[in-house]
Amino acid sequence: MSYQQFAYYYDQLMEDAPYDQWVAFFKQAVQSYGGNVSSVLDLGCGTGSVSIRLSKQGYDVTGVDLSEDMLVMANEKSLQQKVPVQYIQQDMTELEALQEFDAAVIFCDSLNYILSEEKVLAAFQSVYQHLKEDGLFLFDVHSLYKIHNIFMGSTFGSNEEQLSYIWQCYEGEEPDSVEHELSFFVQEEENRYIRFDEVHIQRTLSIEVYKKMLQSTGFRVLAVTGDFSQDDIQPEAERIFFICKK
């Protein structure tokens, strides 16, 4: 199964991802807006890279992801590093039977994998129901600028000895969406590689639409910023960050 293979190599492919910046952004938001935060719900946690870092900072973390394979990798990493994170397999649009948390995050553009506005709204409602009063909700999404000016029609690649890839981006069927076609080449023996392919589709929405959804759910939107900054959003910002409170 290709997604199982992708989960296995995910950390190698994402080794340069700015996980420490996401954690620093979270801590700064807690300091500015959050008060006393001890429990954190990490949605779309993947292989646990943010969850583990938050746990090491002293937070009581629960990681949720739809992929069983990603959670297997996350659990193995937590055990190896002796970090107490609870992992649960659920859909972030249909969370159920969880406790209430002081804060929730959806980082690493995980929300962009939800393609319909109705499902995005359902995710916000699920988060709202599992936050304590005055609980914080932070997430980031790709900007419209990034979808249309960086991804669309572009090809990226990496030619490493043990793991190489070709990543092609096409316009998706939904408005403001992009289809990522990825081909991976993994070295099994000195002169033998195996290939596996992945297709990932992401969609983003305008800041105004996200704000309306959040406010209709009951959230107060405290700040909207770009690219890990607490300053105003620049026209060429690639990531948009939302800081909200129940």
UniProtKB/TrEMBL annotation:
Q: Which GO terms describe its biological process?
A: methylation
Q: What is this protein called?
A: Class I SAM-dependent methyltransferase
InterPro entries tied to this protein: Methyltransf_25, SAM-dependent_MTases_sf
* Superkingdom of the organism of origin: Bacteria
Name the Pfam families for this protein.
Methyltransf_25
The answer to whether the entry has keyword Methyltransferase is: yes
Q: Name one GO molecular function term.
A: methyltransferase activity
Domain annotation Methyltransferase: ranges: 40-135
Record carries keyword Secreted: no
Q: Which UniProt keywords apply?
A: Methyltransferase, Transferase
Native organism taxonomy? Bacteria, Bacillati, Bacillota, Bacilli, Bacillales
Q: Fetch the CDD domains from UniProt.
A: AdoMet_MTases (cd02440)
